Protein 1
Amino acid sequence: MKNQLIVKILNNIADILELQEVEFKPQAYRKAAQSIESLSEAIEDVYEKGKLEEIPGVGRHIAEKIAEIVETGKLKYYEKLKKEVKVDVEGLNEVPSLGPKKIKILYKKLGVKDVHDLEKVLKQHKVRELEGFGEKTEETLLHGIELLKKRPSRFLYIHAMPMGEIISKTLKKHDFVKRVEIAGSYRRGKETVGDLDFLVVSSQPKKVMDVFTGMKDVTEVLAKGETKSSVRLSNGMQVDLRVVNEKEYGAALLYFIGSKEHNVELRKLALKKGWTLNEYGLTELKDKKWVAGRTQEEIYQKLGLRFIEPELRENKGEIEAARAGKLPDLVTVKDIKGVFHNHTTWSDGHNSHLEMAQQAEGLGLKFISFNDHFGHVGITNPLTEKRLGKYLQEIEKVRKKVGIRVFSGVEIDILKDGSLPLSPAKLRELDVVVASVHMAIKMKEKEMTSRVCHALSNYPINILGHPLDRVLQEREPLALNLDQVFETAKQHDIFLEINASPRRMDLPGELVKAGRDTGCKFALSTDAHDVSHLAFYPLAVNMARRGWIEQKHLLNTWTLGKIEKALQK
Ligand code: DGT
Ligand code: CA
Ligand code: CA
Ligand code: ZN
């Protein structure tokens, strides 16, 4: 699947053309990249169907370029451009908070051609002198370079997902493949994965290895053995694959789903019973007699445990709970009746209220909540008190056109002093108030905590939006004393958000669990800025499950009547 690769190349072309002061073309490349980014199918499939030009923003010229990348993995035009400009746009774009506009200024004014140059001029304090940069930017960029150096190359779950599906499909096509399972952190629903781990049941491992290492997207075979192989894909991701037989399937799956910490605890339990547990099975320590291994369930059972869902296997109390019969009855994707926190063209979204509501209805959801930005959040078009009336009228119109419940609301900015830019009385006229921190995010823990808690204590807020305001692989979480925030939210019946935006995943599972243990309740939000983002809500279900969430903890699973009541302030 080359979607990500193509998005990256098109965006880089746009950046280079911009450096060369070419007009209009950069926007065209960006628009095409954006469409491909939100494409739900593999670009290869679109190409094979001859439908590239049906993608919004993709005309004949760009379609030809995409075709070349699909076929060869490269683009001559792009290689040529890169040689012409001699600026490492690819590398510079990797620096968090550095975009095409700044790259251009840095190049024109200071001759910055790559990350190394950038670090040098930053340290010489030349960057802060540039118009529009300043000391803060200097600091942010230096920090970004540090992050980049330290960054373990992990992949967002959402980027691993299509690869996982394609590889599964490729393997399952063959009749010598009996089963295919994805294991590892991906199976545990983690928001980022280091690599993908496949487990295959087959009596002909050699053939499986040939198929696996011969896949179209493999750029490098890292290891090829009789039952174990590893490859690297064109997007840089590593994929491991192990072939086992039916008899050891359960033991192998248990082992490869992990986590390592969970496995270590299970092994200790086995030892206490005089057994040994490894990837091949559960056997008696003394005479190596077979105890179990065909299924995960039988292994757990022998160890005196209920079956533990993969998302819980982090050695965070799940083994004790399984022994005591106190495992949570986890929410599932099917339980989700609707989604909160969605943006439209009334602020910085791409689609109208109607388009968004219809999309939600098409996905089988029973409600959608609109929460366009209100207040000065650094976007060009936030809602104002003056526009609010018209916005609500628009929502009213949409209500008549769709068969699902439509909640009105805003995502309001928590200002520096913890106040909100709209009065409590006005906020009460809305169905759903999401309040979030967007600006002045560098505050120290004490100030940030009292800022957030002040807002939670003094306004009729329903949902605390993306509590950490982190951006995966780009921006660190806010400095917050979460114990205090959770306590305050609980006191005022404010739901903590589980934000499904793929780079946010905020709160993440382990913190959802901490909030749950404090007694907080949660609301699942898509934070969609485009119709295509609505389908991301299962990602937040992963976070909920990793956080031990049952239906009673999650607003989105309740009946509409109960939801409405819970939102009244
Ligand atoms: P990742 O890929 O960094 O996101 O995390 P995982 O959990 O997928 O880790 P990975 O790919 O290194 O290994 C997959 C699973 O294999 C892991 O979850 C547990 C198991 N495993 C790997 N190495 C060990 C080990 O040294 N001991 C034990 N008990 N299990 C291991
Ligand atoms: Ca892995
Ligand atoms: Ca692995
Ligand atoms: Zn927000």
Protein 2
Amino acid sequence: MPQQDDRNSRLTTTAGAPVADNQNSLTAGDRGPVLLQDWQLIEKLAHQNRERIPERVVHAKGWGAHGMLRITGDISHLTCAKVLQQGTETPMIARFSTVAGEMGAADHERDVRGFALKFYTEEGNWDLVGNNTPVFFVRDPIKFPDFIHTQKRHPRTNLRSATAMWDFWSLSPESLHQVTILFSDRGLPVSPMHMNGYGSHTYSLWNDDGDRVWIKFHFKTSQGHRHYTNAEAEEVMGRTREGYQEALFGAIEEGNYPRWIVQVQVMTEAQAGELPFNPFDVTKVWPHADFPPIEIGVLELNRNPDNYFAEIEQLAFSPSNVVRGIGHSPDRMLQGRIFAYADAHRYRLGTHYEALPVNRPRCPMHHYHRDGAMRFFGDMPNADAYYEPNSFGGPVEDRSFAEPPLQIEGPASRFDHRDGNDDFSQPRALFLLFDDGQKARLFANIAAAMSGVPDAIAERQIELFRRVHPDFGAGVCAALDALDPQF
Ligand code: NDP
């Protein structure tokens, strides 16, 4: 395709043949009809029909840029991951997104934001697929499709349904923590640059001695937290639906590169056994007082993509992508996502999605996966080595990359994940951090979002807020009353 600085060069078909006329179809006489023989016309129409791929079911609307991770702290005693060694710089790419809206949704909607990072490390791609909040609505992946249905359109009305959202949340007390964050100021950042990122899940680090610790990753915005109120966001959306793209793309074009300070929280395996709550429960944070954040580096975004579709829409993250020295944890939601993310991309992009330029590792890769749609990359140097084991010098495993064994115990069963779980203390700790203004906005945001919800569902949710803190329940009641005195 001709580039901006190349516009006088010759137009060709996709097969490279120069095009003699890009203005007129091939017709029988000057009044038509068009001849089927006009393969240039057919090629153009056929390509246009195929310009869309399935959008992501969740996180469809996104914005992204290239950048660099620089490690400044020394955690070599915790991990052998090359990407996390002091002084290492690793090229990376980030994609931010809203969760519920479709690809054309307005940017400034109240929603959780995706904060997904792909690091092109020397030992393979490492993807950290987080959010701008440290917790999530559900802790068991079997609830995820139900939860997402409540965020999407009603099957009959084709409208978003506040009733469905609050019905699900009021029946799922584990959602309280995330709901409190969503309706607080941080639920509506002014741009991707003005929010934190959190790996959210518990991951692990391991070193050459085979010692493992549990770990949480945090990315603290250097631009400062900035948020819109609902009223401000409505005003902005009246002017532009693309405010995040404009802000992020514009800042990077102008050389104002956004940065985040990278922190980790570390928990030993022994500490995990002594905690009063499950450290692998993604509806919970690790209190800073017990697990102080340690600064280990800085993330900077400094290059806009040249082609949004190729580099951001085709960008494919999966928590399954970890590298030596970084591992997973028993977090159930993480395990669900290890399957679901890669599966989404196989459906959305195709079997060989990881060979697309933006997803391709920057290090050599040698695997035995073979054919399938869009197999556009060549074979390994020795074509006879197309299975394993073989006698023809094909690639072999390297046991030095093995993760230390993880002890697991207990009977396989469907344990009730709500049984004995304290879903109230951590939202309470957050609620008590808010000043009066933040609390008033929290109450008003919740009341506005509950508009039209049947009383029984609203009452059930308010009872959950009361259990977080009596002032929380009372504040939401008063805000609902102010909107509708009949409530
Ligand atoms: P701390 O007081 O040590 O930490 C409070 C944290 O809350 C800070 O990380 C701060 O993030 C964040 N915070 C401050 N204001 C808001 C807000 N309006 N909305 C969302 N987050 C906010 O206490 P704890 O570690 O004991 O945590 C108390 C509560 O804070 C938790 O229950 C949780 O809800 C929330 N929180 C905790 C985090 C953690 O990893 N421990 C992370 C984020 C939130 P920042 O430093 O970026 O301003």
